[in-house]
Every structure is written in structure tokens, then in C-alpha cells.
Amino acid sequence: MEKTQGAERSGQRMLEGKVAIVTGSGGGIGRDIALAMAREGARVVVNDVGASLSGEGTDDGPAQAVVNEIRALGGEAVANTDSVADAAAGQRMVACALDSFGRVDVVVNNAGILRDGFFHKMGDDQWDAVIKVHLYGSYHVSRAAANHFKEQESGCFVHMTSTSGLIGEIGQANYSAAKMGIAALSKSIALDMRRFNVRSNCIAPFAFSRMIASMPTDTPEQRARVDRLKEMTPAKIAPLAVCLASDAAADTTGQIFAVRNNEIFLMSQPRPVRSVHRGEGWTPQAVASHALPALRAQYHTLDRSGDVFSWDPI
């Protein structure tokens, strides 16, 4: 198989001997991560239910097509078409890895759907579908792998979060809540499992994919933004995911990264910004007259992701 420049310099592929499960890898970001991990020596379980962007329908073609690509490169891969929203799916995916390759070392939680809508118009079905695939799905697959990672005292989780949750976005309450939940899930896994040499990190990817293709283009500004986002291909996300899954990132856990074209960001995590103290305690009136005025200068603005990442992709 072809090697990356770093691997060529070192003579050793970064994921040699490792087995990775990549959910939602029949296309987009997941496909490029699966291919990149295979190029770096990983044997890959390619999971994709073959659903539409809204989560409807199934098709085993996408997963098998990526398996065929990996095999054409000289790598090893198997297809899995379980839905991550199913509580038993994670167990079946891990069993697939163990049955096919004898171990599991890496879980990439990438599977996702969108069912956008303004919060005041959102239905329970829209909320449940997105939470189940993104947040429950990340939990199901991670939990299934956790005991194996614990027993072998090694393992790595890479979860896909989003600036829609970390910063904010209009019309995506379900997606944003799930993605913020995934960031907290990753941090909890990192804290709970570091004693077993198990790592967990997040990536907030900027990439033109089926999800971005669904964004509205009703105004010139929206069309211009989508055109800029088209420059960010899914392949730009894969190098960070591969590195985080490798032993080269052995000291990296509990972090949140973002990738935007050729830029990699380390994202902040909530910490106290400023405090006020009142020795005699607080009344509602004192909060209004003292606490809020003292804290107001440090209020966070009501930003969307595009307000913070406002420059053209580099």
C-alpha cells in the first residue's frame, strides 16, 4: 500500500498491527478516515448502514465499496451495516472486529444524520433520531469496545463533535445538543479510562459533505459560504484522526480539535471566566444590581460557528 510522507521517513506505518472500527465510513469524512487508516497499516471494520442523510433506508453498497477500495490498495477490511442507533449494534461491531482480525484498538465514532429545524418547530421524531445516531451511537460503540480496551490496557477513541454544538448554529438544536454531549462523553471516557492507558479525543470537522450540501443557499451570503466550504474536502480531516489513533499521540487525551482545510485548532473547554462574591450572600435584587453588571463585560456573544470562523479557508 502507498505510505504517507511521515511513514516513508520513519519506515513504519503509524497504525501497523492495529484494528480500527470506523462508523459511518461508507462515504464522506468516514470513508477518507477508513482509507487513511488502512494506508497506515490498520485493518478496518467499515461500518455504514447505507442510509440517506435523514437516516432513511439502508444499503450495504457504500460499506462494501470502501472495503473494496481498501483491498485494492492491498489492505484488509470487512463491511458492517449495523445501525449505531441500535443498542446491540456496538457489540456486533466489536464482535465483527474480533472475529475478523482478533482484536480492536481504535474506534472512530463518525456516523451521523441531520434533521434540521427551528427549535420552536422541532418534533420529537426529529430530536430522537439525531440524538440516537450521534450521541447514543457514540455511546453504544464506545461502551462495547471499552472492556476490551481495559483488558488489553490500550485503546483509542476518536469522536466527531461539531462547532454547531461547541459554538452554536441556527436550526440545529438536536444536532448541536448531540455534538456537545459527545464532547462531554469523550472527556468522561478520558478521565475514567486513563488508568488503563485508554485515550479519548474529539474532532470538530469542517468538510464539504452530504451534511453541508444540505445547508440552505437561499441568499447570496449563504451560497458564498457553501462555496467556501466546498474547498474543505473530507480528506483534510483524516491525517489528524490517524495521528490521534496512533502511538505518536500517546500523551494526547481529553482534547477537542477542529480541522478547517489546512488549519488544525485546539478548542477551548469551559472554565470560569470571572466571579463576584458577596459576604452576606445574595438576594435576587443584589444579583440584579451587583452580580450581573459586574459580569456583563465578560458575557459571551450569541455567536454562530460561522461568526467565529469568519475567514476564508486557508
TrEMBL record:
The species this protein was found in: Cupriavidus numazuensis
Name by which UniProt lists this protein: Ketoreductase domain-containing protein
InterPro entries xref list: KR_dom, NAD(P)-bd_dom_sf, Peroxisomal_Beta-Oxidation, Sc_DH/Rdtase_CS, SDR_fam
Domain Ketoreductase as annotated: residue spans: 18-211
Family under the similarity heading: Belongs to the short-chain dehydrogenases/reductases (SDR) family.
